[in-house]
Amino acid sequence: MRMQLQYYDILESTNITAVEKAAEGAPEGTVIIAAKQSQGSGRMNRVWSSPSGGLWFSIVLRPKTAPEHIAQLTLLAGVAVLKTVKKLYRNCSPKIKWPNDLLLDGKKFCGILSEMRLDEKGAVDYAVLGIGVNVNLQEKDFPEELKNTAVSLLMYSADYHSCNEVLMNFLNEFTAMYSEWLSNGSDNLFCEWKSNNCTIGKNIQVKDDDKVIFEGIAVDLNSQGALLVRNECGIQRSFDFGEISIR
Ligand code: BTN
To answer: Among 33, 147, 173, 198, which is least packed by CB within 10 angstroms?
Structure first.
């Protein structure tokens, strides 16, 4: 995949710009990067704090695959960030919390927000993967309410890397994994995800709109990448989105 990088000093949200460009026909591999975002968005309509010092970007993809496989791209991007961090930062052991939070010692340093549009025939027109990595933020850069739950790579590690270095390494990992996934499917991806996650085997609560809708042990991913959860009565359900909290 040929990457075409477009840098901005400030955007409302790289996802908004990437979706606009994709709707205008931007090719697969278009990457929108902003030094800061004024309206960064997270999952569940949350605000994503995006001051300068972080890596905020969105990738336009046009995979020729069924819409139900698109959620796997979020897992793929998470594993690609994880591999990037392990390669660049010594003594860092990031873990993935299903589906797409990357944590260091339980604190979040990366989130992923994916969007998709189908064409009139119901096929995938484009997917946009929006990725936020707290690379070089300092403690003072985090809003008060995130100080206990969020962290940056700079705060965590003795190593320093620029946002652009992290981006270039990520794009290398991502393109290799993406073409493998397109050719061979999800087996390798799920295997890498499972060996780096901190969700399976844990007692979790699945939430919708902050309400607990199911509680049990996370047992596995299913063949589509959805999370299988079994409650104490032995009832098993799969969740392909939602918010979980690990207990
Ligand atoms: C989450 O809630 O964990 C997802 C956060 C995703 C944030 C990234 S930053 C780049 C892109 N632009 C946005 O507005 N959001 C995503």
So the answer is: 147
